[in-house]
Amino acid sequence: MDKKEIQTMVLVPASEWEETRKQIAQLVEMQKENAASKDEYMPPKDVCAMLKIGRATFERHKNSGTIPVYSIAGTKRKYAKKSEILRLLHEGKL
Predict the structure, then answer these.
(1) Which residue of 10, 46, 81, 88 has the smallest Cβ count within 10 Å?
(2) Could you give the CA distance from residue 24 to residue 18 in angstroms, rounded to a whole number?
(3) At how many degrees (to 10) do helices 55-64 and 44-51 cross?
């Protein structure tokens, strides 16, 4: 380490660190799956733009199970797989 570099220590409660560590591990796993399957996870706004639908229509498809969504543990963010959206379009389900 260069002598001019400054080190910083951040104290985080163990429970918060464990939750953050789990989220990072899940993101890494999603990235591995994404790289292996060459699949892209899309947030709802991108799915809506791709399908040219409004957010309410997306939510209706999500709630009915037509569009499967995935989330990262500990967050409320939802993602859809682009390959599944394309498959549903091809099958005429969207």
Answers:
(1) 10
(2) 10
(3) 110
**Residue 52 three-state SS:** coil
Residue type, 7: Q
Lowest mean pLDDT among 4-8, 21-25, 37-41: 37-41
Q: What residue spans define the domains of the chain?
A: 14-90
pTM: 0.58
- pLDDT, tens digit (0-9, with 9 covering 90-100), for 27-85: 888 777 766 666 788 999 999 999 999 999 999 999 999 999 998 777 788 999 999 99
Instruction: Tell me the C-alpha distance between 85 and 80, whole Å.
Output: 7
Taken as a whole, the chain contains a residue count of: 94
Phi, psi angle pair for 53, to nearest 5°: -125, 165
